[in-house]
Amino acid sequence: MSGKYLNSFSTLKKITIDSRHFSIFSLPELDKQGIINLSQVPFSIRILLENILRNEDGILVTKEDVEKLMKYNPLQKSDIEIPFMPGRVLLQDFTGVPAVVDLAALRDAIKDLGGNPDHINPIVPSDLVIDHSVQVDKFGTRHAFSLNVKKEFERNKERYFLLKWAQKSFENFRVVPPGTGIVHQVNLEYLAQVVMATDNLAYPDTVIGTDSHTTMINGLSVLGWGVGGIEAEAVMLGQPYYMNLPEVVGVKLTGSLPSGTTATDLVLTLTEMLRKFGVVGRFVEYFGTGLSHLSLPDRATIANMSPEYGATMGFFPIDDMLLDYLKQTARSIDHIQLVETYAKEQGLFRTTETPDPTYKTVLELDLSTVEPSLAGPRRPQDRVPLQKMKTVFFQSLKSIFNKPLPEYIKEVNEKFEVTDEVSALKIHMNDSSELTHGAVVIAAITSCTNTSNPSVMIAAGLVAKKALEKGLKTRPWVKTSLAPGSRTVTDYLQRAGLMKSLEQQGFHLVGYGCTTCIGNSGPLPTEIENTIKNKDLVVAAVLSGNRNFEGRIHPAVRANYLASPPLVIVYALAGRVDLDLTSEPIGMGRDGLPVYLKDIWPTEQEISDTMAASLDPQLFEQKYQEVFNGDENWRSLLPKRGKLFHWDKKSTYIKKPPFFENFKLKAGKISDIHGARVLALLGDSVTTDHISPAGNIPPSSPAGKYLIAQGVDVKDFNSYGSRRGNHEVMMRGTFANIRIKNQILPGVEGGYTIYFPTNEQMTIYEAAMKYQENKVPLIIIAGKEYGTGSSRDWAAKGTFLLGVKAVLSESFERIHRSNLVGMGVLPLQFLTGDNTQTLGITGREIFTISGLSGELKPRQELTIQTINEENIRLTFNVIARLDTPIEIVYYKNGGILPTVLRNMMKKHKS
């Protein structure tokens, strides 16, 4: 043991659990030595400290790295960079396919350079869950699930061939086949171990994932968060994840949730609160007596939405509630004993007597103040109290969507009051498909955020049942869907006798996957979509997901609201969002009397009794016994075996990427950027949905035209997400979102720009290709919070392939900035007080960026000089957001993967 680990600080010791012997790197030993005061250190930092102690090897992790972390002061902002070595990597198929494509291309590249392709193999255990591909084509029928799965395999067979090849070809790589569940729920219920043990060495489970909602596992006390796919690939190949040690914000929870509220209401409240405070780039850690009143699934719901409130993660420490959940989900007794003993031995176990750690900042929330809520119409942090939903919708109709109010509404003191009760009632109770503003056309129980939580799923089933008893049915214009995050959900709903009620309300099983939450809501009925288009309506979607950005859920649906599963059912019954459910009826019962929310909302006792009768550890044990086997569709896939992937030149799903073409073992020199043109000038809160859109591929778009030229029928386009293994599609889809607003073209929506040499308006892709032909470098300029949303590596890859050399913004979301660096694109940040308005930048200028050719330092100031069409010059400084020394190395090499490839070739040649 001493030969394998350096153990510079003499913390390696042994523990015994029921005659089983384990070695651990003891944190209390550091406390005994007087090096740290463990009780004051946040739990999340304790896990990082163990990680760096254990991985000290003198090469990737040095004694100096450990010493730097041991000087951690919770009250001081730190510029310490540490090499974090995650225990696992987690991928979903949208981000996993391009990762596998890159690894396959790396094997080709290393062979071409005279190396051994076997060296390109995951070193860190990696799991990929196929969950992002199923789409809601069929709904409202008991055959919806089988028909959607059939369609999924028809559309994605080429992608699944690649993943099946990877499952057989790569070591340390497992694939959970389609139709099993959502990656984060499968991770929560099965994959995560809390404490890992390898060669009798016990250590905390840690994970990075290629999906921003990897943070859901923080609810199970597993340290982990989403990173770019490029960074994940590097970690898979044994490289550390280099990170600046973040500040930790403590959120003290007290009290308990009032009756009638759910974990969804709580997380929307926290999202609003934490976004307003500002926790981007920070850890959030929850503590306080309120934790004792939050179930493990409640905690997972809160942790899941860490990206929505901007935190790197939202961590909950280990306690008795966690041990109970491990029992409920059929983890072995031996493993549960390991988790409990290890956590207590290491000072990682919380009880009501545990001293509160010291945090840089402490925020407080009394759970008893939480009220029923939604969030929308287009951002998850825009919480709407249920009783204000009607008012907020009409305000949005005017201020956001620029539509006139209905004739029967008057505005008084910012409250919208009905002037014609008869007209209002007619609209609200209308059972025809004559749509108006505010009609709910999509009601989806979707997303791991909430479907992992039995309490809200049982509540949804009880609402459906009680509504049927009252004679209320889902309105005919509502597209309904039930897409749980794992097969255990449908099992316990069936055991509870609630599945039949959900189906009678139109909420049939449509698939086990993300579906509507990631934009795979499928088509609306033709007559509904035509009515929306012809009448230019602002209709609504209500979903139990975590994202509701513009253009994400469905192109025809402009108002999108996040809500708990039971509220999704309620809005499907009402068919509208422009009513106050706390005082107005949902509809008329069979007895001719109005039915109100209180009439169909279940009590806490009803929910808990139903859960007790229907949940059983055997459900989890049975469903996860053959989790990697898949159904007949998956088993029938028989790709060619071998270390090298057989690229099919005719494939429109999987293409060998151009990232290693003409690759040289020695990196070129970095030089200043001269004569750059602005490809797009964007505003605030530009998301990765805007940059690299998921969802439908319009036939008239550059990507659509490319597919048609390849002989693909429009009906077979599938989605952008499903074609992430084809760079030709993805680069054409970059900045092609239908709602993106390029300020170079005021009043124009969509992926268009001006090609300045001829002053022509054209698509961003077409302009980028013309600039590339003439060797003109490009830049993107944006406002605050550039790159929020899902951690899509293609938002950076597409930017790179369009020829963009730098992105200049007022601020960046963490993952996207990191992804840009990982692709060799330079992130630049305006100095405080500077932006496009204060500097008078129009986007029509020519840019020169100076200061790159010298010896770069982290966050170095660079100089930008511009010249506009009137030959007026402007000079200002910006910060190069290369935040750490390793990011400078990546940038100089042209990205992470070229760095890894060069290092591998050096290592195996020496």
Can you put this structure into words, describing what you see?
With 910 residues, the chain is of the alpha/beta class. The chain is 35% helix and 17% strand. It contains 33 helices and 34 strands. The strands form 11 sheets. A 7-stranded mixed beta barrel has the order 26-29-30-31-34-33-32. A 5-stranded parallel sheet has the order 6-5-4-9-10, with helices on both faces. The mean pLDDT is 93.
Overview features:
910 residues; Aconitase, domain 3; 4 domains; seven-stranded mixed barrel; 33 helices; globular
Fraction of helical residues:
25-40%
Query: In order across it, which strands form the biggest sheet?
Result: 26-29-30-31-34-33-32
CATH topology of the largest domain, anyone? Aconitase, domain 3
CATH class (first level) name of the largest domain: Alpha Beta
Shape: globular
Task: Calculate the terminal CA-CA distance, rounded to whole Å.
Answer: 27 Å
Radius of gyration: 27 Å
Structural class: alpha/beta
